[in-house]
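Below is how a single chain appears once it has passed through the pipeline. First comes the sequence as given, then the structure the pipeline wrote out for it. We keep one example in the README because the format questions we get most often are answered faster by looking than by reading.
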Amino acid sequence: MALTQQERTLKLSTPLGEDVLLLTGFTGKEEVSRLFRFQLDMISDDAGIQAADIVGKDVTFSIEMKEGGPRFFHGFVSQLMASNEDQGRREYRAEVVPWLWFLTQTADCRIFQDKTIKDIIETIFGDLGFSDYKFDLQLEHKEWEYCVQYRETDFNFVSRLMEQEGVSYWFDHSDGEHEMVISDHTGAYQDCDESEVDFPGDVGVDAIDDHITSWEHRYAFVSGKWAQTDYNFKTPGTNLMTNEPSVVSLPGISKYEVYDYPGEYSDKGVGKTETKLRIEEEEASYDVVSASSQCKSFTPGGKFKIGVHPSSSEEGKGFVITSITHSASEQIAYESGASVGQDYSNSFTCIPDSVIFRPARITPKPLVSGVQTAVVVGPEGEEISTDEYGRVKVHFFWEREGHSSCWMRVSQNWAGKNWGIVFNPRIGHEVIVDFLEGDPDRPIIVGRVYNAANMPPYELPGDQTRSTIKSRSSKGGSEDNFNEIRFEDKMGDEEIYVHAEKDRNTVIENNDTILIGFDKTDPGDQTIGVHNDRVETIGRDRSLDVGRDKMEHVVNDKTIQVDGGHTETIGKSMTITVGSSLTETVAMNYAETVGAAMQLSVGGALAITVGLAMTETVGGVKAENIGVSKTENIGTNKALSVGATLSETIGKDRDVNIQKDFKEKIGGKATVAVEKEYMLTAKKINVVAKDELQLKVGKAEITMKKNGDISIKGKKISVKGSSDVIVKGSKIKEN
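Resulting structure:
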């Protein structure tokens, strides 16, 4: 006879069709915030059912309740096992799980940014095509700035997020479907069909009555306080410590504190909320009942009240079921498949329905073992992209959806308050990323590495003795546009090389000492500002080649000491402007050679002192124009040699004071023209003429010749003597 379910209390609906499989019993466990799992025992006249016919497909099974019709269970077949075959009928066993179980079969690595837990869950469920869920949330859940699913199943990822944020879930079953309820408050609990249930204890009851068959109320000591803290680099001085005492009242409980770090929050308000979640997680295990019953409607998240109870203190209390294990069977007449007896029982745990159930955080968060590398990314067309903290974004090699990371801090060798070292990773650079405490949600850049696309600036191993800090001009710089400090450590070729692509500015607020063993060359522009002293000591030569102009500005005095010779060669003009005095002291010789004209303009007095000889040689004309007076003081001799004409023009008087002798030698004629008087005063005056001496005044004249003739001519000649007048001659003629 063919098998049929028509008269049975256990029924099963599968994609194989009605009555292909007959349900003979089932066991299974449902639990808040856990996957349910049922094992179904079945028989069939079809000994050749294939896995593809049912595995991965949904089924509905039910048990008939005393009143109110069937209690449905719905799920998906994750396993099918075929076992004994007898008289053409085969026994089968199937495992049934919720649709959420499929999330255990997929793992991923991906990044969520600026999303709440609701946003993340909706994305993951939607990607897999699941929509049989509803949210019943009252708390304000934080927005995750950066949340990473890393090498973990979708199920583990959403589970640990819900556990962390105090969100629980369970499943409501109906014919042909089950719905996931996601909640964070006690108002989401729903009454069971059997909303008030008795526990008669030892009192006899009808075996088929739905009632509680055992009741064990347990109280457990729990921690009295939860405290945690974290750190926010944006507000480093803010104390993020939060703590929350337990509402459980037990002697001495307050001194038993759980303290943890990090709390995974950056705001103290969020920290207070999450700390409260942690202590509520502790409190959920304080007051727990373990019981058993025949109540078929009991389900996780369902509420009931105690009616009759041997302990009056329990009567009237409300409880919510947190887990339940079902066991049902229905004996079968082998030939017909008819029912010959059904049995159902369950064991469950519950807590007071005034207590919010916060799931225990049992799903581990994956840790990143060691460091990873990633590539810096940024807006198209940019070469450098940072925020105000010097953070950059990267693309991890495992991130396949094209999303960049959060803004990621960059480790620098020094990081002081407005001082330190800054080398910003640039777009396209490969960087080394570490994770604080291995947390994938807390990355930090700790280094950089070269790769085949970004090779070192010098060829290796050929230049392996060369160390460098070499940058690139941005934007649009090529390999020819860079700043660099380079060290060459090759023996015999040691060098420190500094290259500034444009300007180099050096500010020295005290002394600057430069010791140069050989040469120094400065091509290009250079500006040096020294606030105090600068001392340069050069062991050998110093050469300065200025391509255009050179300007020196000395606020006070300037001293140049040259132990050997000093040579200045000026291609064009030289102008020296002295605001006050100019003194030149030459220990030995001084020579000035002027190729063309030389002009000396002295606003006041000019004094020239020559210790020994002074020679002036003028190839052309020399003109002296003296506005007031000129004084020459010559310690010994003065010689004036004029190749042609010497002309003197004196505006007023000329005084010549000769302490000893005065000699004049004239090669040609000598003419003295005096407009007024001409006076010679001497103790003795000798006038010697070789040929003739002539004295002439108007028409009067006296002429003396070398032959001895003396001629006196005049209109009137008077000879007077205060004593005798003697006239001698060989002949004396009178007119």
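The CA atoms of residues 472 and 480 lie 8 Å apart.

See the next section for the split statistics.
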